[in-house]
Amino acid sequence: MMLATISLLPAALTRFPLGRARLPFVFIALIGFLAAGPIYDWKYRGRIHAANLWGGLFILISMAVRPLIGNSQPWHNFAHWLIR
Q1: Residue 47 carries which DSSP code?
Q2: Among 12, 19, 41, 51, which one is least packed by beta carbons within 10 Å?
Q3: pTM score, two decimals?
Q4: What's the start-to-end Cα distance of the chain, in Å?
């Protein structure tokens, strides 16, 4: 549930009125929230839980891939077909 909430944060954080500092702020905040789970696991349990490791990596990779897919013509065609 924590990772699902963190994956929704960039949409909310980009609405902060920060001007050009918006994207670095979003990236740093996302990294901070994603690092909190593994740091807690490592400190109190002695190892990082697989869900935190793989879920966090998936969210980071998806953040890099979203603009590439979202701005592509095939995605726009699919979205147009979907809303028709």
Answers
A1: S
A2: 19
A3: 0.75
A4: 33
Question: Which residue is associated with the tokens 């603009």?
Answer: 67
pLDDT digits (tens, 9 = 90+) for 6-55: 999 888 888 888 888 888 888 899 999 999 999 999 999 999 999 999 99
Q: Is the dihedral of CA 71, 30, 3, 13 positive or negative?
A: negative
Give exposure, 49-82, as e/b (b: 16+ Cβ within 10 Å): eeebeebbeebeeebeeeeeeeeeeeeeeeeeee
53 CB-near residues (< 8 Å, 6+ apart) = 38
List the domain boundaries for the chain: 25-83
CB 13 within 8 A of CB 26: yes
